[in-house]
Amino acid sequence: MRSLKKSNAHFQKAVSKLPLGVASNFRYWGDKKTIYVRGGKGGRIWDIDGNEYIDYRLAYGPVILGYADDRVDAAARAGMDVGGVFALATELEYKVACRISEMVPAAELVRFSNSGTEAVMAALRIARAYSGKDEHIFVEGGYHGIFNEVLWYADVKHWNPQEGKPKILPDSEGVPHLIRKITHAVPLNDANCLEDVLKKHGDRIGAFLIEPIMGNCCGISASREYMQEVRALCDRYGVVLIIDEVKTGFRVARGGVQELLGIRADLCTLAKAVANGYPISIVAGREDIMRKVGDGVVHGGTFTAHSVPLAAADKTLEILAETDALTSIAANGEELRDGIASILSARGIEHSFVGHPAMSGLFFHAEAPSNYRQWLDSDYAFYDSLAVELHELGVLVEPDSREPWFLCEAHDMKCISETLDKFEQAVDITMNKLQDKRGKRMQSGSR
Ligand code: PMP
To answer: What is the pLDDT of residues 306-329, one digit of tens each?
Structure first.
């Protein structure tokens, strides 16, 4: 058994000063399971107890090259010498903006922010200002950050299909209930449903917010055809199409999911992989829409385009544009998928993969889901048990099966084959434990 003695002791101290003992609710895994990290290098991290993990969470995606990448860190150090922030602009902003436009054609004009949340918040505001309409649509199962307008979810888990659509509920206390009135949700890959909502409310809907590969929902993916229909419907109803590429940007292709699916957003948001983990995000898009910034729309912030993350972004984008890093990540991701598939098939365990090999969703059902409603059909209880065993063996995946497995350039074949050995052990342990449980239930006569 892995020891978390030091992490547990630290948790007791930390919780006296920080709610849940952490800086983000999602980092709290339970009083006895919360991990405190000593450091990371390449595709691995170490906790303060000295446990080593091959990490497929990668901080929820930003780490595209590997932790503490020497090339990016050297650039960031040089960025530090520039002096940080000045409440004035630096020349590098233009250079990085040009790199982004070259890689993502929809990004005709670019503005920087610090987090994905800020970028999506800006995109929605710009879309409202441009369209003159306050309401927006999101996709069931989607996640777009922690500001009020997007902290809503479609309650698919408790939904009865006989009663129409799933309820839309706030994801947090403190979110003003009034916002419910400007929020609509649709299932992915159902253009008819989108059209119905637009027919009814199109005169009030200014934006459609979508992650075509759902980075917070297994990587469930939109089809090319659906995205074409989405594009046409947005054009027809005067709706700004916002493609949230906070997770997919500079990861699934140089030009992100837009390149992969042959679609062009009106506005897009990019964040995580752009600077290999340094905090910087981007809202970008069509020139006429982006010109609203400064012409009615407020955008900015004290820390925007800080010289350290900006320099890190410049170097990361140079590497992604000029080397085959993304091709090699995708190839290693395929190897991992193939290995996992043969381990599971050999044991007769139904499964499928969704998303992209650089951010794979592993799904315990023979058919890959095409929307969040179908995710409920999978054996996510098996995933939940498996994740715990993987942690014990030193493979870090998100305990929630809706978070994909992220790969970085530093996940080489040594990492992949080590992962597969451990995965095989974890599957066998999980199966045995589940069989034991079932046996005990049968003996006690309970169901
Ligand atoms: N959009 C998407 C698609 C995301 O995955 C996330 C974060 N996981 C966000 C927005 C918010 O980004 P941040 O956590 O940097 O605020």
So the answer is: 999 999 999 999 999 999 999 999
- The set of residues, in sequence order, having a beta carbon less than 8 Å from that of 128 and lying 6+ positions away, is 134, 136, 206, 207
**Burial readout 389-416 (b: 16 or more C-beta within 10 A, e: otherwise):** bbbebbbbbbbebbbbbbbbbbbeeebb
Is the CB of residue 280 less than 8 Å from the CB of residue 314?
no
Distance between CA atoms of residues 251 and 353, nearest Å: 17
Nearest protein CA to atom 7 of ligand 1, as residue: 145
Question: From CA 126, how far away is CA 209, in angstroms rounded?
Answer: 13
**Pocket probe mutation, ligand 1, options 153, 214, 246, max atoms within 8 Å of Cβ:** 246
User: Which residues have CB under 8 Å from 276's CB, separation 6+?
Assistant: 62, 63, 64, 65, 66, 69, 72, 312, 316
Please give the angle made by the CA atoms of 97, 69 and 220, to the nearest 5 degrees.
70
Residues with CB under 6 A from ligand 1: 60, 115-117, 120, 143-145, 211, 215-216, 244, 246-247, 271
DSSP state of 33: T
Q: Whose CA is nearest to atom 1 of ligand 1?
A: 144
Name the phi and psi angles at 375, rounded to 5.
-60, -30
User: Percentage of residues in the chain with pLDDT exceeding 70?
Assistant: 99
Evaluate whether 358 touches 219 at the Cβ level (below 8 Å): no
Nearest to 150 by CA among 233, 217, 207: 207
Q: Which atom of ligand 1 is nearest to the CA of 279?
A: 15
∠ CA 99-102-108, rounded to 5°: 100
Tokens 């441009």 appear where?
Answer: 130
In angstroms, the Cα distances linking 72 to 272, 364, 424 are: 14, 37, 34
Amino acid type, 119: A
Identify how many contiguous H helices and E strands the chain contains and give both numbers: 13, 16
Q: How far, in Å, from the CA of 248 to the mean position of ligand 1?
A: 11
Instruction: Give the C-alpha separation, 354 to 377, whole Å.
Output: 14
Closest-CA residue to 358 (of 105, 61, 144): 61
Q: What is the DSSP letter of 60?
A: G
The model's pLDDT over 173-231, given as tens digits with 9 standing for 90+, comes to 999 999 999 999 999 999 999 999 999 999 999 999 999 999 999 999 999 999 999 99
pTM over 0.90: yes
Query: What DSSP character marks residue 297?
Result: B
How far is Cα 124 from Cα 137, in angstroms, rounded to an integer? Answer: 11
